[in-house]
Amino acid sequence: MSAEATNPGAHSRRRGRPRIDLRRLGRAAALLGPTGRDRLPDAIGHVVEAHRAHHPDADLTPLRKAYLLAEASHRGQFRKSGEPYITHPLAVTLILAELGAETTTLTASLLHDTVEDTEVTLDQVKDEFGAEVGYLVDGVTKLEKVDYGAAAEQETFRKMLVATGNDVRVMSIKLADRLHNMRTLTVMRPEKQARIAKVTRDVLIPLAERLGVQALKSELEDLVFAILHPEEYERTRALIAENATSCTALAGFADDFRTALREAGISADVLIRPRHFVSVHRVCLRRARLRSTDFGRLLILVSEDADCYAVLGELHTCFTPVISEFKDFIAAPKFNLYQSLHTAVAGPDGAVAEVLIRTHQMHKVAEAGVIALGNPYVPVDGAEPADGERADPTRPGWLSRLLEWQESTPDPDTFWTSLRADLAQDREITVFRADGRALGLPAGATCVDAAYAQYGEAAHTCIGARVNGRLATLSTVLGDGDTVHVLLAQDSASGPSPQWLDHARTPAARIAITSWLDTHPQGAAVPSAAPRRPAPLPAGRPISANAVVDIPKATVRLAGCCTPVPPDAVTGFPVRGGAVTVHRQECPAVARMTGVGREPVPVRWGDAAECRVTLVAESFGRPRLLADLTEAIAGRGAAVVSATVEPPTQQRVRHTYTLQLPDAAGLPALMRAMRDVPGVYDVSRTQHPAATA
Q1: Stretch (H or E) spanning 684
Q2: Is residue 642 exposed (0-12), middle (13-18) or buried (19+ Cβ within 10 Å)?
Q3: How far apart are CA 146 and CA 393, in angstroms?
Q4: Could you tell me what percentage of the chain is helix, strand and coil, using 3-state DSSP and rounding each to the nearest 5?
Q5: Which one, 94, 519, 609, 660, has least CB within 10 Å?
Q6: CA nearest neighbour of 137 among 114, 166, 103
Q7: Element of type H or E holding 414
Q8: Which parts of 466-558 fold into alpha helices (H)?
């Protein structure tokens, strides 16, 4: 923006400045030569031509007024390159016009530096061009250093991102503005070039990628590459120059593709797309030696979605497909609106060509992203938005998440660091909540991130999660399409541990966890989880009176490894001393003893209902868990014979209880009551390995 503006008599933007007299524009128009009612000044003829190519019926009156105001207000200002400053808003507007931006965006683009660098006020822009243009101009206007000091740049980006949350066209103008400034950056000092290039690399290029504006992103990448990595850039430039004829190999593939598709009756355009510098450099890093076909890709454009798959089938039939290179971004679009089929095929000589297959509309969106969608707030086919609200199809999940966490970071440095970290995660996955709703997360996100994305600060009480129905630790990395059921404790005193920061990938999760830890330096008050001393078993209590064997005077014992109870299918094995040990038939000890030739004896259940059983409760650690479990056990009339609690492992706790039940029929209800205790995710009968009875 105004970083390159110079003006010998320039004023600084200040409060209470006089309003510019817009009636002077009539006199300014005379200096530009005659212009009819429907004719625009010749200086923006190229912008008009590009705009008409995408919007032939557009009303150009706002463009004419905007250009006259911009030219008059910037008159006498020059860029550091020596060019009149008006060339900058014209160039920015041309970039957007060529990408298909609609008239409102172009109008705001022409005016995007007027409020920042001239006497024109925001109120004047709104009065002359409407609130929508005023909002866009305000969104890209920098904050003054006199008010924000060293934090001006960070707070300007924060302001711009908040404005983008309401209207993505704000960021479209900013990206085009930065592209033109990068094209002319050589007039700056090397250290300033590097500083601007780094911000472009860390913030604006990722934003261009997320908004799907690949045309701007690719050129910005090359310009940043040349400034920050000049030696690698020169080597890549020389490599491309040495292989200037490499398109010959791709041209052969293109001819073969056209022939195959024509014979199949598929109407398609087959084009060769050379790779840009950074793309070639990345291929060099992946491969020790470049192939002649690595300097470009083939693009096939068709009319309908179904034709994309028809082309794919024909290519895979007529040529040898490289299966590992196939990706379907039509059925599963990228989070930045991108849709296309990617594949690669090998020719008879072994040469491999990468192929992109998409419709013309997909290609337009792939190049221009949200800019190709025009004004997202104009009702389609005259339909009114529901409840009078503006329905914005271009506000993706990542932007909503960004706007949420930035509200929790008043500190500019923390915001700036978090923003760069968030934008560095350049891939997104979709996971599904327990209620079936989708949740967008960056690739590499864990259950911790899913918890905070779904519940916000309520996720402080998270005790675990189920991923695809299976218990998972909070550190589990989620995959695209996973179903995540976050489990929360009922005790509000619970809170995150410092280890959660090691698993959090999203700024929202990290900021929330850090904030809680800062306000709770001692952590959550967690009572001791040590079990009570086991209650002694009353003397003379029968332990197996309801298990009967047909051996006179035999003592019957229930095996401690599987603790059988009625109506379990059981079997017995004689042991020394004339006793018989009773096991459940599925107990591993039964198979071992049978395998060594031990003969089982029949066992049946008698009339007595009292029984002893050992249960294992798997749970997430939380305060009062032991007390709640023992209360559930007592509520079902069971007595605790013994209890052990193993040390927590990855926030999971294993409780083992040996219980005396007054009636074996109550065992299923007891196990259900234990499972209903918050934090408990499974209760099962023991299957401990046992020695030969």
Answers
A1: strand 680-685
A2: middle
A3: 37
A4: 45, 15, 35
A5: 519
A6: 114
A7: helix 412-424
A8: 500-503, 507-519
The answer to whether the Cα torsion of 324, 350, 348, 280 is positive or negative is positive
Residues 46-56 as b/e (b if ≥16 CB within 10 A, e otherwise) read: ebbebbeebbe
For β-strands 462-467 and 470-472, DSSP reports them as antiparallel
334 or 107, greater pLDDT: 107
- Identify the bridge partners of residue 432 per DSSP, sorted by sequence position: 438, 483
Instruction: Specify the length of the chain in residues.
Output: 693
Cα distance between residue 356 and residue 340, in whole Å = 7
Q: Are 406 and 162 in contact (CB under 8 A)?
A: yes
Dig out the tokens for 285 from the structure: 């890093």
Let me know: does 109 contact 47? Beta carbons within 8 Å: no
Please, which residues have CB within 8 angstroms of residue 158's CB and are 6 or more apart in sequence? 406, 412, 415
The closest alpha carbon to 10, from 1, 19, 2, 20, belongs to 2
Find out whether 72 and 31 touch, Cβ atoms under 8 Å: no
Q: Round to whole Å and give the CA distance between 434 and 428.
A: 20
Q: How many percent of the chain have pLDDT more than 90? A: 32
Confidence of residue 395 (pLDDT cuts 50, 70, 90): low
Residue 564 tokens, joined? 């059988």
Active site (catalytic) residues: 116-117
Q: Are 693 and 639 in contact (CB under 8 A)?
A: no
Residue 404's alpha-carbon distances to 68, 161, 408, in angstroms, are: 39, 11, 7
The alpha carbon of 187 is separated from its chain's Cα centroid by a whole number of angstroms, namely 38
Q: How far apart are CA 40 and CA 367, in angstroms?
A: 28
Mean per-residue pLDDT for 395-418? 75
Interatomic CA distance for residues 342 and 299, integer angstroms: 10
Which of 472, 436, 468 is CA-nearest to residue 454?
436
Average pLDDT over residues 343-354: 88
Report the alpha-carbon distance of residue 134 to residue 125 in Å, rounded.
6
Contacts of 134 (CB under 8 A, 6+ apart): 122, 125, 126
Q: Tell me: the pLDDT tens digits for 18-75? A: 444 444 433 343 334 444 444 455 678 889 999 999 999 999 999 999 999 999 999 8
Find the mean pLDDT for residues 553-558: 78
Residue 346: its H or E element: strand 341-346
Beta-bridge mates of residue 549: 603
Angle at 77 between CA 33 and CA 37, to 5 degrees: 25
